[in-house]
Amino acid sequence: MFQFLLKRFGVLIPTFLGVTILTFVFVHLIPGDPVLIMAGERGLSPERHAELMAQLGLDKPLYQQYFNYLIGIFHGDLGVSFKSQIPVWEEFVPRFKATFELGMSAMVFAVFFGIPIGVLAAVKRGSIFDHTAISLSLTGYSMPIFWWGMMLVMLVSVHLNLTPVSGRVSDMLFLDDSNPLTGFMLIDTLFWGEEGDFIDAVQHLILPSIVLGTIPLAVIVRMTRSAMLEVLNEDYIRTARAKGVSRWRIIMVHALRNAMIPVVTIIGLQVGSMLAGAILTETVFSWPGIGRWLIDSLQRRDYPVVQSGVLIVATLIILVNLVIDMLYGIINPRIRHKK
Amino acid sequence: MALLEVKELAVQFGEFKAVDRISYQVEQGQVVGIVGESGSGKSVSSLAIMGLIDFPGKVTANALHFDGHDLKTISEKARRRIVGADVAMIFQDPMTSLNPCFTVGYQIMEAIKIHHGGSKKQRRERAIKLLNCVGIPDPANRLNVYPHQLSGGMSQRVMIAIAIACNPKLLIADEPTTALDVTIQGQIIELLLDLQKKDNMALVLITHDLALVAEAAHKIIVMYAGQIVEIGDAEVIFKSPLHPYTQALLNSLPEFTQDKQRLASLSGVVPGKYDRPHGCLLNPRCPYADKQCKTVEPILHARSENRQVKCHYPLSPEGNPSYE
Q1: How many CB atoms lie within 10 A of CB A20?
Q2: Host H or E run for residue A8
Q3: A239 neighbourhood in chain B, CB within 8 Å
Q4: C-beta atoms of B84 and A331 within 8 A
Q5: For chain A, how many structural domains are there in total?
Q6: Would you call the peptide bond into B244 cis, given omega within 30 degrees of 0 as the criterion?
Q7: CATH assignment of B4-98+170-309?
Q8: Per-residue pLDDT tens for A53-82?
Q9: What is the spatial distance between Cα A278 and Cα A143, in angstroms, rounded to a whole number?
């Protein structure tokens, strides 16, 4: 296990360096001058422009800028936002909590519904339920997120008036700063909010979670279904039946455990694409998360924010996949014992 | 009354008859060998007895009695109480027949738990005893081992341990040694026969290897294309086969091929869904077939006590067809 982890972390370092180079190069390839964008329509004199460029360190050659950036990272300094003058890490943390909360509840939604639906579709193969599940998941998978989000808002929030339109909590909601707030609305409102605040936070979370969870849901349904179909044909399922094991137990214990191996892989991969989906979902629902933060910073050519933001996100995805790899060992004894 | 009585059992997949109206009996403590080429319906007929044929397969029978239970009309729940307890089965490929996600101990104890219950400690002790019984060294530690850590022979021993966990009255072994090394094959058969003798259990040994059942079985059932073509006591059938197919199977054994360049073989293959011939199903491959064989299907008829054959011209003791 230790060797396995060591190997994994060995891969992490080159990946990490690669990400820094890519984000740095791409951000600087985008035309546009952060100083001019900050100045806005008023414009500014060439002298003042040069002075600001020097102040931000943008007058140096690109390779030098890159090395300064890299050295900063290794000192734990991710840079300071051009716009807010706040260190990137400090800007990142609260926004990440918002995204994390949204992503987790979207994933819970996808897994909670996806696996049972997939199992049922496989068990009742060829039935109306199976066909419905398959075609709906294809529809869900091919639906543009922003369109789906807006349609849901129109229907559920505007016409039926069931959930709020946007944001994490209602504007009127007030949480006292003197409490040890975690930044996760569900937790904060539950422990320190007034009566009804928690419900309010949940209501705000429902629609964005459904929107963000739709694609993972569709993928999990299909993957679970096909994995189950494959496993149910295996010899060991026949053995279990010959032992007199009940049908329910065969499906839930003997088959599902084996079918979970590819499904867990897919869930891990979905975490990455969910961050992409979060950008659109957060835009539609005005969710103050990293998706919106990165898009806004990119439009302002806020180089440090974009570079470091992408770097953190990439590192997170790598770490998630590392956790998934370790999960395999728990699910599948064959991987655990491989030397 | 016989322990297992099968009458006119048929299994159909759509139009294709995988098993075609077979009837036989297995007595308490009897060893029955079912032999035939691949595709002759040996496995499917036993799966049907176990109730393991899934849609679209269709099982019909005039009678399907096991130990006083009518397996035809029994409810799914009542069948599960019998299957795995009173009648158990082991399969061809032991490496894929064990669930890779669970330990050997778990899989043995599951069978005990379902049928006998008992405390966890009792089940564990029973599992250790079973592993000991099937000749696995260091059984207490082997309980925590996963199937991929076992060899093929060891896996088959575990499968046998699972099958005999609840002291079955009938054990069906579906080609138990086909996937194993020759050296292991003998050991596994020996183990099965030992267990059979010890508990006076009935054993149905399905195989395409006549030599394997030659010494072990009391009764031999020869199947071809889903039908029974010959039934007889083991010694008699080997000395003087009545059916040309049985004769061909015996001739193809390496033991009969001394001083010859090639192994004798029957040309052609078992007919499938689209090439079932008229008359006797063996007629395209039978060296003795005449006009009658190509038009009229012979019936399985008794020649003497315990001896039945499905042929128009059963062979004489010298091995020649008895044309009238």
Answers
A1: 19
A2: helix A2-29
A3: 91, 97-99, 159, 162
A4: no
A5: 1
A6: no
A7: 3.40.50.300
A8: 887 778 788 888 888 888 888 888 888 888
A9: 15
